[in-house]
Amino acid sequence: MACAQCLATGENYVLREDTSAPGGNRTPDLDVRTVLLYPLSYEGVWRDQESLPRVTPLSPTLPPERGQGVWFSAFSQGSHRVDQAASVRVETMENTPNEAARIKARDAAFRMLNRLTAGVAFAAVAGVGLLGAVSAQTIPGVTSSSTTSSATTSSGVQSSSTSVSSSSSSGVAVSGGS
Amino acid sequence: MTDTVLWYTTRGAGAVSLVLLSAVVVLGVLSSLRFQSESWPRFLTTGLHRNVALMTVVFLALHIITAVVDPFTHLGWLPAVIPFSSYYRTLWLGLGTVALDLLLAIVVTSLLREYIGPIAWRAIHWLAYGSWPIAVIHGFGTGTDAWSAWLLALTAACVVAVAIAVGYRIRTGSPDPLGSARIAFRSAANRREDR
């Protein structure tokens, strides 16, 4: 039997009497369907419900009439709406060794992230102090008023009270902090 | 706190901020490349990228605060926010302010990503490619130690690291597994609109 929409549009869009599910796909416009969606086929196939896999509810406290499970099938969205309260088997990821290993790896990665972040923060704080000290010793073109450098002593012996000697080629002594 | 301590802290925090900012850019590029290995899952890159970016803001704040409160320059707070409004080294300091503003825009939009949507977030996030080189130029222009050997080596290491990451990113192209499908969809949608 053809549906009313199909008759109006001329599309080959046939409904099956036994399932009321469309015999074509739901996006018959090829231009859109081929690029947007993987061709979803909802062609109705009627099967004995008893032969379909059932999903057993975890909770034994569910009433019996609601604990019979539902059928997960790709051909009828209606079945997913039936008895939703008893529809899902919830399994924790620890149930399988593979999942447990993945959780362990994830936790290890989180610990590594925390350690790396703390390490970067510590290094940055230390870097401010270190680079500040380095910059203090390499200020270009600044002379110290309180420094007695080897350049100013007549004996040529560097004074022990000199704070910091400049690393610049000019040989000018600078202060490390005043 | 003496003036010189503030000055040294400004310079040290500026250099550290440059290193951190470079690390953020490299980690961001690695995130876009979907880099991962057995011992380095992908979320580690993005998590570290986020954490280091926030850390960069903290050290940048230290850099700016110590510069502003330093009585030698009398900068004031306005030049820290509004570019090219400083009497002191107007151009170079203004570039630093531009880099800061861009970085703040990136950080704020990243924190509000759920509200502004991925397209706007991505568009603003691309500003990072502008913020980093501006920060490097700011360091060269206004930095007291710009031509010191240690800062030149540090800046060169940052530039090389970012250049390698960005170059690899450009060479490999989009790693998006759905990229071709998106392009095909857009072209088909355009064809359909033309009918």
Distance between the termini of chain B: 73 Å
Low-confidence stretches of chain A: 11-17, 56-82, 143-178
Whole-number mean pLDDT of chain B: 85
SSE pattern of chain A: HHHH
Question: Overall pLDDT of chain A, averaged?
Answer: 56
Q: Which radius of gyration of chain A do the C-alpha atoms yield?
A: 39 Å
Task: Round the Cα radius of gyration of chain B to an integer and report it.
Answer: 20 Å
Helix content of chain A: 25-40%
Give the C-level CATH assignment of chain B.
Answer: Mainly Alpha
Strand % of chain B is under 5%
The class by helix and strand makeup of chain A works out as: mainly alpha
How many discrete structural domains of chain B? Answer: 1
**Percent helix of chain B:** over 70%
Largest interface: A-B, 30 and 37 residues
Helix segment count of chain A? 4
Number of E-type strands of chain B: 0
Q: Write the CATH architecture name of chain B.
A: Up-down Bundle
Q: What is the gist of this entry?
A:
Chain A has helices spanning 4-9, 30-36, 78-81, 97-137.
